[in-house]
Amino acid sequence: MSLITMQHVVKSYTMGDEHLVVLKDVNLTVEAGEFLAIMGPSGSGKSTMMNIMGLLDTFDSGLYQLRDTDVTHLSDNERAHVRNKEIGFVFQSFNLMPRMTLLENVALPMVYAGIGRRERQDRAAAALTQVGLGDRLDHQPNEISGGQMQRVAIARAIVNRPAVIMADEPTGNLDSKTSVEIIRIFQELNAAGTTVVMVTHEPDIAQYTKRIISFRDGIIQTDQVLDQPHKAGVEE
Amino acid sequence: MTVIESFKMAIEAITANKMRSFLTMLGIIIGIAAVIAILAIGNGATTKITGTFNDLGATTISLSVSNKAGNDAQLTAADLQAIKQADDRVTAVSPNYTLSGFAATNTQDQQAIIFGGTPDLQYTSTMMDSTITAGRYFTQADYAESAPVAVISADGAAQLFPNQRNVVGQTITLRSRTTSISVRLIGETQSTVDKYQGAVRRSSFPVYVAIPYSTMKLLSINAGGITDVTMKVRSRNDITSVSQSTVRLLETRHDVVGEQLYTARNFLSALDQVDSVLGLFVNFIAAVAAIALIVGGIGVMNIMLVSVTERTREIGTRKALGATTRDILIQFLLEAVILSLIGGLIGLTLGIAVAEIVANVLGITARITWQAILLVLLFASAVGVFFGLYPARKAAKLNPIEALRYE
Asked: What Gene3D superfamilies does UniProt report for this protein, alphabetically (chain A) (predicted)?
């Protein structure tokens, strides 16, 4: 059984008189352990695809199975629970809570999961150590760099041990050197078995993944497995 | 998510913007302070007034004869005797007759309030009572003889005899519009001007004098038949039954049963009236204060709406991380309630302080009941819930994708 199975997914918006079909019969299967890049120009449907895969958005017709479970028809609350348990989000602009410490930020998904305070702290500290910020637990987001903020966001994404990490332009706000550092963390996580789906418009960043899907006009135009992904270099 | 977590988040959000939170609370603070101060002062004033009425005459009955009554129906000294003898719960009966005239000596001439009564006047009158400081009150014998004797208040004595310590035995002239008589001062009561607790000017205060009602008849042609009587009964509980039996007795004696010529009033009904007027007043001001609270609530709603807009991205992120609609609703609702409740607590403290100060100035005791405290805190919370619900629902219903995209 695949980790993610999407069949004949159609998504359309109505804006005024205009009916816009954003995804036209999309089929996609993602196996556990993949590192997938979703590419495409603006309006190609890649962001919509990401939102649907991340259970932030619903779709008109089709089927979506996530880890043996049919998540096609879920209520808002059920989708919130699945997001909380199975999906780790990483955003372009980090989206950390400005007044919380790094530890509290990383612990936040576990608050919504109803995990006790002690376990939250232990697991958040472990996740921050994993991304190399184990010595900054009590810092505030405004005290660290952009690259470090994105690492905190990654720690937050993995802390609930999700089925898949959804990263939406995770390097979009970072310089190229920092971008590679972030990609390296994704590669490390992926090597340890975590499935990663990343939306990006930077072809060179996509080269670090194992499979690239290109969207155009609401359909998957190309689906290409990379035999030799780039290896993100060790930090100097 | 647990309540404790929501609570922590709400406190963090409130303390992140201290000045704004305080300004938002200000409406609630003022509203609650006003409500608690008015309730405390109102309760204090009611207690004070009730106490005064109890002092004055919780055991007093005022008996009056209708002006439709003919001469035959007017009361006589014999009637008063009969009332007192008929019921041992009646402790004092006296005509309640007051004449505005003048009191003069060879050198002084002052305005005077002249009271006419039986010797029981010392128990029925609040002004010329039995607190004799020199000499004595007039007696039944004085009354029977229409003796030209008088009791004078201490301040009156000081006005008429500025240089004399003891005025007992002195003679003064009492003058009405029609006639004048000479009376001998036989007693001095304590100062009457002091009973007004500084509410009147001492220099313009008239001389208070009490004389037997029989003597009053020599001074005033109107003091013939008795039309106003004040009675004292042993206890508050006797008031109603004694009032009824006395009216029946008088109707029988004058053979006017059923004509409703005699009316017995007591201070209990007056007290009820004062209570209800005061209660109306307190409720009215409390309602005005409640309007202030509602305005404060609108302030809370306004700032919560601003907060929801400002934190749209935060809300989107929280939803992406797994916050349910309910989690977000509770977080923002709790923030509004805590904001209102903190405002309520500050307002409560301020209100108690204001009440104490005002009560001190008015010379009453502010009464702050725990019911009032509970009421205002509940009310503050209710304001928070009511005005926080709309912004909280707005936050909870945000579409996560649009919220995440919000710049």
From this structure: P-loop containing nucleotide triphosphate hydrolases
